Amino acid sequence: MLSSICVDPAAAGGGHGRQLIDTWWRRVRERGVYDAYLSTDADDNDRVNAFYRRAGWTLVGDYATREGRRMNCYAVSVGSTVGSGTRRNDL
Asked: What is the SS3 assignment for the chain?
């Protein structure tokens, strides 16, 4: 499970975040996992949402937490294309 990633703002743009997520995904696949999902804030979070899209994650839906926080759900899969636009209320 990947709980969170972060990069010091002073090091932003240096490819460190991409290296972290790519290394995590490679190690997960080595363990026989071929689909992964993540969620991140939908509002006021354009930079992070763009990061995941550039890293190959597909927006598959959104949901609201009990507190009303809007979240985007992304997926990545090996060997298949994950469709977009599917609403995931069960995550």
From this structure: CCCCCCCCHHHCCCCHHHHHHHHHHHHHHHCCCCEEEEEEECCCCHHHHHHHHHCCCEEEEEEECCCCCEEEEEEEECCCCCCCCCCCCCC
The β-bridge partners of 77 are 35
By the 8 A CB rule, do 59 and 84 touch? yes
The label of the residue with tokens 């294309």 reads: 81
Between the two ends of the chain, the Cα-to-Cα distance in Å is 14
What pLDDT does residue 8 have?
84
- pLDDT tens-digit map of 35-66: 999 999 999 999 999 999 999 999 999 999 99
